[in-house]
Amino acid sequence: MKVTVFGIGYVGLVQAAVLAEVGHDVVCVDINAERVENLKKSIIPIYEPGLTPLVQRNYEAGRLQFTTDAAHGVQHGRIQFIAVGTPPDEDGSADLQYVLAVAKTIATYMESPKIIVDKSTVPVGTADKVSACVAAVLAERGVELGFDVVSNPEFLKEGAAVADCQRPDRIVIGTDSPAVEEKMRELYAPFNRNHERMIVMDVRSAELTKYAANCMLATKISFMNEMANLAELLGADIEKVRQGIGSDPRIGYHFIYPGCGYGGSCFPKDVQALVKTAEKVGYVPALLKSVEQVNYRQKDKLFAHVHAYFDGDLAGKRIALWGLSFKPNTDDMRDAPSRVLMEKLWAAGAVVQAFDPEAMNEAQRIYGTRADLSLMGTKEAALRGADALVVCTEWNAFKAPDFEVVKEHLKHPVIIDGRNLYDPDMLEAYGIAYYGIGRGRSVATS
Ligand code: UDX
């Protein structure tokens, strides 16, 4: 099938490449000419395992094209994906200006009926706004052409996006039109084999499904972080509690890992956006607000531990930091807990010696060159001459360090672990002071 994808960001690029891989003829349109030219040379704007060869292979096979020519893009696909960003505006609501600009572009150039698919994460009611926008432009042009607007949210996880897209656990389609449903079934048929993954519903329910999924996951995390904070005060070990509750299949083991708070491009933004959506319809989303508040506090926790360990005397202290990205297998530092920690350490006069397997360039881009941040080439180099070690991200490379080496390098043998990677008893045996999240021993409580 002929498909056009507007927006070659994270979601658009992965979806386009995966559709091309199964044989669809995909044109990607973006207003960023540099990005388009780079993609033609297989220079990918993001770090995502498996994406570069996928893009390269399909570009060379001619099934995946990149262009800034919107008119060409609109002519090409019967199906037009909108996969542009919906950043939060000043009050935290999702900003729809880019989505509506694409809708306008499609309406301006279309000469045949189109199925317009909202792939971006958009608030409930956006499909209606897209419809109204397209209808208005068509009316201005004085042409009568049929179009449908479908909601088809994505559920990709950064670091596993290609696999998630190739083997989705569900494909949510919001439409009231049986003809559109049939076309979407044809599009996704290669991903819907062996058992039914397609869940078809009305447009508004599909739009809310995306937010409900992310908010549920964020709620699980904040709940566990609250339990961890309690465990710390009560002398219990949250890791034991986690296993104890996860064994109940109604609760399950997924997404109940306590830590230094959730970050990334989705959870913080989506929880905030749903709070705003709720408030706009006169509902007070008490639970969602608490989920946000708990997470906000949790991101302070690592700093609170360091601050308490050094009795507030952080001026001139050197802190080794392992992990800058908001989670492993990505270089994304959006809303990463590491940023809250670093910024607080700097404000207190400390120096950070950081290492991350992928996010060093991103850290350089965000913070530039500053005297109180040293980006080190290895995790061992980050330890040299440091007063303490803080772990922010659970990269595999950090899971089994040589603790003798860690101890040797640190001026004060202490590890503050935001991801509960290590066994407290083992570290005690090494003579290293250890503070995890909710592990029954605390230097700081919040
Ligand atoms: C998330 C959703 O999982 C995905 O379905 C949606 O489409 C986009 O948002 P992503 O942001 O890539 O994906 O990351 P995810 O792996 O879900 O982790 C989000 C955050 O939660 C990370 O900061 C992670 O460290 C944290 N987390 C996750 C926990 O603190 N504990 C857990 O048990 C799981």
UniProtKB/TrEMBL annotation:
Keyword Transmembrane included in the entry's annotation: no
Protein species of origin: Zhongshania antarctica
Name of the protein in question: UDP-glucose 6-dehydrogenase
UniProt domain UDP-glucose/GDP-mannose dehydrogenase C-terminal: residue ranges: 320-424
Pfam families named in the record: UDPG_MGDP_dh, UDPG_MGDP_dh_C, UDPG_MGDP_dh_N
SMART domains reported in the protein's UniProt record: UDPG_MGDP_dh_C (SM00984)
UniProt entry tagged with the keyword NAD: yes
Family: Belongs to the UDP-glucose/GDP-mannose dehydrogenase family.
Sites where the protein binds substrate: F155, L156, K157, E158, K210, F255, I256, Y257, P258, G259, G263, K327
Catalytic activity: UDP-alpha-D-glucose + 2 NAD(+) + H2O = UDP-alpha-D-glucuronate + 2 NADH + 3 H(+)
